[in-house]
Structures are given as structure tokens and as C-alpha cells.
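S.,

Sequence below, as promised.
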Amino acid sequence: MSTFNAIGIAGTGVTVYRKWLDAVADNLANVNTTTRTSENAFQARYVAARAAQDGNGAEIAGTHLGSAEGILAYEPDNPLADAEGYVRRPDIDMGNQMAQMMMAQRSYQANLAVVDRARETYTAAINLGK
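The prediction came back faster than expected:
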């Protein structure tokens, strides 16, 4: 791998981790979304990554959705509650999502740091020729 590939490879990591952060943010934003028991619950989104097909970096392999069944919660005062007082909530573990967010954020930052270091190295190499 040459030094010039570093920005491209780290850039693929930035893209993958940004998508991961987007999915986690979406899941956290909808953790308290309620629906009628006759409807599907919000489905958590999970991002799958893999090594890039060309062998340089990473790419999104796809996204997967969580359970549409969700969790039944007793909330008789909720306007969406059924006759027994139940609503459907997404099956999202906030603690797990927060851990996922921290991992994705740190990895995103690490890839940006690689881009910065590579840019500094390129600049220094150009300045040697002056």
C-alpha cells in the first residue's frame, strides 16, 4: 500500500462509520415511538460492513431491520392504546445503542485522524521538493 492510498482507504472507513452513526441515531430517536398493537413497531436499523471488493478499505454490505413485533407496553392513557390499554414499542436496547454509538464515533474519529496525518505527510513531501 502506498502512502497515497491512505486517504482513500480511510475515506471508506469514514463513510462506513457515518452510516453506522446515522443508523444508531435513527434508532435512538425512535426508541420511544409507540404504535397501535395492530401495527408494526418501529424497526431498528443495523448496518453491516465488509471489506471493499477491490481490497482497499471497507464498504456497506447492507442494512438489516430489527423485529417489527416490538414489545407490548401497558399504557392505558396513550391515545394509540388498544381496548386492553396496550401499545407496541420498538425492541431497542438503549444501552446497547449507546455503546454502538461510542464505538462508531471513535472509529469515525480514528479514520479522520488518518486522513489528517496522510494530508500532513503529503504536504511535507511536496514541501521537500521546493
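Residues 94-128 form the longest helix (35 residues).

Coffee later?
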